[in-house]
Amino acid sequence: MSTLAEKIKSSRTTPYQKIAIEFDTSEDYVGQIARGDRIPKRGKGLKIQKRLNELFNPVEK
Q1: Domain limits of the chain?
Q2: For residue 51, is pLDDT > 90?
């Protein structure tokens, strides 16, 4: 039997995991883009980079 704390911990997702699920890719790939290990030029990678920028660099109004 698992404890309530274990259930809560297993249900949490990181922002990388949420974006990976959203774009049907791995969280490692999302992390590589976020760290700058991969520089996307087109396609899914560029969409992921834009999404990361939306979440973590919001435009101030």
Answers
A1: 15-56
A2: yes
